[in-house]
Structure formats: structure tokens, C-alpha cells
Design a protein that fits this description.
The complex is a heterodimer. By secondary structure, chain A is an alpha/beta fold. Chain A is built from 17 helices and ten strands. Chain A has two domains: 227 residues, D-Maltodextrin-Binding Protein, domain 2 (3-Layer(aba) Sandwich), CATH 3.40.190.10; 112 residues, Periplasmic binding protein-like II (D-Maltodextrin-Binding Protein, domain 2). In chain B, strands 2-1-3-5-4 form a five-stranded mixed β-sheet, sandwiched between helices. In chain B, helix 4 runs parallel beside helix 5, helix 5 crosses helix 7 and helix 6 packs across helix 7. The chains are: A alpha/beta, B alpha/beta.
Chain lengths: 364, 187
Amino acid sequence: MFNTLLATKTNVKIGYVPLLDCAPLIVAQEAGFFAEQGVNVQFSRENNWASIRDKLSLGMIDAAHLLAPMVIASQIKQPNNDPNKAFTTSLALGYNGNAITISNSLAKQLDLGEQDLPKALSGLAEFCSQSQRKIVIGTVHPHSMHTYLIHLLLHKAGIHPDAVEIKVLPPVRMVDAMKQQDVDMFCVGEPWNTAAQLERAGKILCYGSELWEFSPEKVLGVNAKFAKDKPESHRKIVKALIKACQWLEEPDHMAQAALWMATENYLNCSSDLLIQAMINQWHSQSRRHLKRKIFFSHHATAPWPAHAQWIAETMRTLNSSMSSETENPLLSQAYDWQTYAKVLEELELEIPEPSRPPGDIPVF
Amino acid sequence: MNILIIDQVAKRAEPLEQALRDLGHEVLVRPPGKYAIYKMVESFQPDVVIVDADSPDRDTLEDVSMTSDRLPRPIIFFANDEDDDVIRQSIQAGVSAYIVDGLQPSRVKTLLNVAISRFEEHQRLKGELKKTRDELADRKIIDKAKGLLMKHKQCDEDAAFSAMRKMAMNKNVRLSEIAQDVIDLFG
């Protein structure tokens, strides 16, 4: 038994950005789900998505915690048009997890109290139409659900995107930028919304799930060559991560996850902040936003074709310069459902109908 | 060419700035702690942006590369297959770059090579400094352990030192590790 384990032991390099939603990776490592699959995972912590993109393209890492739209972008704009440098995914790392935070000073100008979202949005629309200056909204990457959620919010409020300025800022600098009044609002994952509230820089205007009930967010992006050449290793890490997602959905596991993640090797921050952010985003009892970060239930690990389609269409709409016939074959390469279904079968889990993701898909 | 340097490490940016100036380029260094990347790109109109690959500002540059008229694009989108090694080497050295369309590949390669050698030089100096610091720290530990052994085993300095060295050789570990054990035991 031990010998066969040794013989099939595979090494895999996985990159991640230190954010709350890389939890499945850290749990799979610390709780031993990778080891159980006979996979030896070496992590590479990265400070920005561009760095992950470069290393994944060149095969310096095999897989990564990745913004879902970056997988689609890699298929549309392949470096050197080399298909080996594109990414695919067979695993989503849960729904939701982002929030849009508004600075205290803008909230004060808008006279935002504890009111419902439609009322707040009409106040925001009025401010945008009357104000001399454009409000500045921070996002984390041009190809991110964060950017798209901002556009969904603007659409809902009836604000034309040209009436605001959307700027990319690193998550680590969002709260500071808000304090220095460089941004009026931002859309970011956790723990940064919680940190903005704790540091009294801003307040959460709405959760991503209020704009799209089950929205895609991060995926496990893999280098296309790795997926092609090492399908078994690929399935093993997907399997381990599905188990980690299942494990994470248990509220009793929150404190343990926070303790693992807070350490110097991973997020290197206070575990109290992480627990606070997890309570806000993962296990909310609030009636207004029941569905926030979901790691496993409602088939939260599925790479839904409809999500790939929506992301590709939105990307095209927002970047007029982008030369792109995003054909369906490219999208099904990017979102590889077959590998996902095969892993579910091996795990004896129910395989959902690929054409039926939960909830409604928003339209602009 | 107009070259913008974005680097958190001032000690690395300075010699790189000088080296690129010596090649006859206009160079602007983003002051650390300032976020004004959008403004700098707009007013300086760089042909090339050289950036510390670890910098959290990279993703802002990704946005600039999509929205600016001059479109400085990330290097991995430029490389021909034969350039992959240069790109790989630059990423390993921790340097990345954004380059406007239409620049000659050979000119880009020269710039990258200058940046790579500066980054590697910095890495080497940092490594040497660390080594010197470690050696100094080791020496302190070993001296302390020697003193403790002399006191507790009532032997002279040479005997204490050779006892520790023998233990280190037998266990195949570094002398400072044995010294630390001695301090843990008697200290």
C-alpha cells in the first residue's frame, strides 16, 4: 500500500493570492486532503493576479486560485496564440464573497442610513447626475467579477458607466485609498470590506449576492498543457479541493480554518479579523443577505457553462477594443465540465444538469 | 525611449535608473508609497514600464495596459517562442515589464537584460548581507555556548570548542545548532 502511494506520488505547484476565498486550498493542504490523494502540493503565494497569470502561462506553476474571468480572457487573448499558454478550469471555488463598500464621507453626503438598497441606489444616481466630480470606484482587476458587479450595480441604479471612474487598486491598498479619499467606493473580497468597517473608513453598501444571487467568483485555473498532459494529477487536486469545500461549509470548522489561514505562511494577519469576515460573509444570520459565500452546497464547485458564456459576453460588451469572436468551442475548453463530472462520479457525488445553474443569471 | 520604473525597493531602482540613463533613455522612477500610476502613465507616456513583479501595483498596470491609448502590454504577450527563456529568467529574477506595441524585440531584450542583471545583483547583495548577518549571529551563539560549557564542564576554551565541533560532526549538523542545544540545556 505504502509503496504504491510512493510510486504515484505527484508534485503539483499551486499559486494563490492571500485572500479569504483561497480557503479551500489551505484547508486541502492543512487538513490533509491533498495528501490523502497522494499529491504533494507546493504553494506559491503571489501579491497580484498579473504575476499568477504570467507564471501559469509559462508553466512555472501548474494551477492557481484565479479570478474566473481571467480563464476566459486567457482563451480570448492567448500570449503568442499558443494554446498551451491558455488556462482551463474544472472547478469553481464557490459562489459570491464580494461586497461593495462606500466611504463614510460619501455615505454621509448621500445621507445613507440603514435603508434598503433601491433607496440607496437612487440617492447615488442623483448624486452622480448633480455632482461636479466623477465618483471613483475601486476594483481589483479589469477581468474580475468585482468589475462586473460594479457594472451590475450601476445598471441597477440607472447610472451610465461613463459617469463614474473605475480604477484598479490592489486589495491591500483599498482601505488606505478610501481613508485618503482616493476612492469613494470599492468592490473587493474579504477581509477588506470588514477591515474598512472596523477601521471606520466605510460601510458595506451591498453584498455581491444582492446583485447576483449565485455569482461565480474564483476558480481553480490550470495551465492547459498541465490539464492535457497530467489529467490524473489534475483530477486528484480537484478531488481534494471539493472535499475541502465540503469541509468548509460546516460552521464548526470556521475557527480552525481561520487559525490555519492567519499564519505567517498564508495570509499573515489576525485570526480575529478573518473570523469576523467569515461571520459576515460565510455564516450570516441576516435576513437581507442569507446567501453569501457558499463553498459547496447548490453545486458551488461546478464550472457552469452559462457562467462562462455570461463572462465572455460581459467582457466583450465592456471592452469594445477586444477583438473576439468568443466561440462556444473555446468556452467549453475554458470551462471543462467533463473533468468535473468525472471527479464527481469518482467521489460518488450527484452530477448536476450542466444547463441548469441555480438562480437567475442577470442581464444588463 | 521613455521608461517608467515602479519598484518598492529604492536601492534596486536607483542603479537601474542610472544604467538605463547611461543607455540614453529618459527614465522616471515612481516614488515609493505613491499610488499615482494612472497620472504618471498619462503625463510621462512611457514606452516601457519596468516593474517589480511582486508589486501589488501590477494589476493597476494591467488596467492601464487595457485602457491607455498607448497600450503598454505585459511582456508575456510579446515573447516569441525563442524569447521565452528571457521572459522566464526575468520572472524568476522578479522583474516584469509592460511595453508599447511596435517596439523592436531586440531593443526590448536589451532593456530586459539590463533590468534582470540589476535585480539579480540586488538579490546577490541581499544574499551576502544575510550570510554575513547569519555568520555574526552564529558566532554570538557559539561564543555564548562555549562560555556555558566552560562553566558547567569546567574545561578550557579549546576543549569546549572542540567538544561542540565533534558533536556537530557526529550529528552532521551545523555548529551553531549544537551551540543552540547547549544554550537550551544550560542557559
